[in-house]
């Protein structure tokens, strides 16, 4: 019986190819990175969604920095509760 010996280069290439992810996975990951990069660039160029909107949090002394009702302005709503028409 004859024994076939593979050269060292082929054995190294065969073991290395088993360690690399499949090309389809690499292509998918590359496409995912490109899509996120493009969406980030478009979002940055479009600017903020609501420019007048500001964070309503507490200040350092603990007092509230915004409206009491979750930021909703309800002036004039329900001012005539007891009046009869």
Summarize the structure.
By secondary structure, the chain is mostly helical. It contains 2 helices and no strands. The model has no long low-confidence stretch (mean pLDDT 74).
Write the layout of secondary structure elements.
Elements lengths: L7 H12 L3 H24 L39
What does this structure look like?
With 85 residues, this protein is mainly α. 42% of the residues lie in helices and 0% in strands. The chain has two helices and no strands. It has helices at residues 8-19, 23-46. It starts with 7 loop residues before the first helix and ends in a 39-residue tail after the last helix. The model has no long low-confidence stretch (mean pLDDT 74).
